[in-house]
Amino acid sequence: MERWTPYLDMQFSFDRPGSLAQAGVLDSAASHVMGSAIGHYRAHTVRAHLQYFDCDLQFPEPLRIHKVLPDSLCLVHMLSGQWQHRVDGQLNHYLTGKTYALGLSEHMEAFDQLPADSHARMAGLRVGADYLRELAEEDPHLQSLIGLLDDGMKFTDFERCPALGRLLQQLYHSPYHGTLKRLHQESLSLAVLVELATHLGNRPLAPAPTVRGQRDLAHEARRLLDLNLVDPPGSLALARQLGVGETTLRRAFAKVFGQSMLQYLRQQRMELARTLLLQRKWQVAQIAYRLGYANPANFSNAYKAYHGHPPGME
């Protein structure tokens, strides 16, 4: 059976320059890779014809990748750095903080090229064209997805749909492991497709129903906070999303969990920080940026205040 993507399910973490060709990111029969990298890459098929991937890579030397991409859709959110490639004669740029879609209606050659000392940190989904067509046949509300697979190549900037970027960020910062992580990846990956179809079809999502009962309200608020640890909503925005008053939400959360939402967020971020530090895959500054701190020094101070020692001691 023909592969629907040349990208293989795999992961690596290099603490010194490692050959990308030897890492086995791409099917060697459909690609040619030149260059090395420092950092991590991971790709995992969450269900048939739907692959999640992310990376945080530094390229100490020029990077060149020649690959053949089948008909498919690739969604990418650039968390930092940049990327660029040429497909069907068109040079496409991926810039920090934006979400893009590359849709191909047929097999095409793509040429990635980045200069030495460049950096790319991104999260994305690769979706097989056949899977999109099956979804469109099952539900006409998903027909809009096929529009991203116009004749040839279509490169789209989704700057006006920030929800896509937030969902991909949640995938990147998933705090789970094992089966929970697999379920988390699958649910959020499908949520990306739902949000994309909704945006393209100009069909606004129905407002969240009012949550009744302090316990249910507090647990729903905690769930939403857990999904947005890096960029959490304010208490007013969260209350509006849940259809209650801000004071009502604050009181319910404090009564059920014995702490304010701000205290809970601080606790969860610091516990996640410790987990990441103990994995010894990233430097303190990298973890600080992953958790939304603009200044690593502020992260170190917050970590010491919570755990009683600086992050470097982990």
From TrEMBL:
InterPro entries: Homeodomain-like_sf, HTH_AraC, HTH_AraC-typ_CS, PchR_regulatory_protein. PANTHER family: REGULATORY PROTEIN PCHR. SUPFAM superfamilies: Homeodomain-like. Residues 219-314 form the HTH araC/xylS-type domain. Keywords: DNA-binding, Transcription, Transcription regulation. This is AraC family transcriptional regulator. It comes from Pseudomonas machongensis. Gene3D superfamilies: Homeodomain-like (1.10.10.60). PROSITE patterns: HTH_ARAC_FAMILY_1, HTH_ARAC_FAMILY_2. Pfam families: HTH_18 (PF12833).
